[in-house]
Amino acid sequence: MTYVRMKRARCAKAGIESRLVSLPATTTTAELVETLQSLSQDAGVHGILLQHPVGPHIDERAAFEAIAPEKDVDGVTMSSFGAMSFGLPGFASCTPGGIMRLLDEYEVDLAGQHAVVVGRSAILGKPVGMLLLARDATVTYCHSRTTDLAAIVQEADVVVAAVGRPRLVRGEDVKPGAVVIDAGYNPGNVGDVDFDTARTRARLITPVPGGVGPMTIAVLLAQTVDAASIQLGLAGR
Ligand code: NAP
């Protein structure tokens, strides 16, 4: 609800009309799919965001796939993921898209750099690794079965932490001069990186909160404007 409130407030500030569709906890997958399909067909709606995670009884993938690709401003459908993987036009997953914009803003040259992505979820770890790969970084994915995470992080020129474990990435493992992106959020405003020690070694590091989070919403809004422009015939793909 906090995320939804923040997103709606930012929409209002940017002049984007947002509609909140609240469904009861008893909603079935079929009912959720039907709701998303009807929003997909509604000409007055240009972008759809399904705030997740959904309840454990819901088939989340089936729900995501009910969103029309041209309205998938959160970049969660297989169509969006496939387009991103092939470097074709489409909507990026918002947090990875925001991370790439941050790296561009700070003119981080990724070509040939070793990027270590910790986490491999479909909405964050996996797509951010693919976007880094598309920019000619050499990408290593780490996950819960990775042995010796510390040794891999020590080799990284760019670290993207996307796990949801407080201070999993230790500052002492950050290579001096590395760029550290902390996408994690844990209760108490704690990231996945031990910020206080990592900042003494990193060249650039994102804080939690106030780093990746606001970028995610910014990309969501930017992609909503793009979706509306395309659907209204004001812009091409
Ligand atoms: P998720 O779906 O739970 O995925 C977590 C990933 O971390 C999985 O790939 C998991 O590996 C891996 N992992 C778990 N324990 C690990 C360990 N000890 N060592 C290495 N990898 C480990 O989470 P998510 O949705 O990607 O979100 C990750 C974090 O980002 C959360 O803190 C979330 O709140 C935050 N987030 C922030 C934003 C934002 O806007 N800033 C947006 C989305 C998410 P397996 O695949 O092997 O299970």
Structure description:
Helix 5 (94-105) crosses helix 9. This protein has two domains: 2-70 and 220-231, Rossmann fold; 109-208, NAD(P)-binding Rossmann-like Domain (Rossmann fold). A five-stranded parallel sheet has the order 2-1-3-4-5. Strand 1, helix 6 and strand 2 form a beta-alpha-beta unit. The longest helix has 20 residues, at 212-231. It starts with a helix and ends in a 6-residue tail after the last helix. With 237 residues, it is α/β, with parallel strands linked by helices. It has helices at residues 2-14, 29-41, 60-65, 78-86, 94-105, 125-134, 149-153, 195-198, 212-231, and strands spanning 114-118, 138-142, 158-161, 179-182, 204-205. Bound molecules: NADP nicotinamide-adenine-dinucleotide phosphate. NADP nicotinamide-adenine-dinucleotide phosphate (NAP) is lined by residues 95, 118-121, 123-125, 142-146, 149, 162-165, 168, 183-186, 212-213, 216. The site of NADP nicotinamide-adenine-dinucleotide phosphate has 26 residues, from helix 9.
Secondary structure: elements and pairs:
Elements: H1 2-14, H2 29-41, H3 60-65, H4 78-86, H5 94-105, E1 114-118, H6 125-134, E2 138-142, H7 149-153, E3 158-161, E4 179-182, H8 195-198, E5 204-205, H9 212-231
Parallel strand pairs: 1-2, 1-3, 3-4, 4-5
Helix pairs in contact: 5-6, 5-9
In short:
The chain has 237 residues and is α/β, with parallel strands linked by helices.
Structural class by secondary-structure content: alpha/beta
Mean pLDDT: 96
Helix content: 25-40%
Which CATH C-level class of the largest domain is it?
Alpha Beta
- Major beta-sheet overview: 5 strands, parallel
CATH superfamily of the largest domain: NAD(P)-binding Rossmann-like Domain
* Uncertain regions spanning at least 5 consecutive residues: none
Q: Which architecture of the largest domain per CATH?
A: 3-Layer(aba) Sandwich
The ligands found in this model are: NADP nicotinamide-adenine-dinucleotide phosphate
| Secondary-structure element series | HHHHHEHEHEEHEH
**Terminus-to-terminus distance:** 32 Å
What is the CATH topology descriptor of the largest domain?
A: Rossmann fold
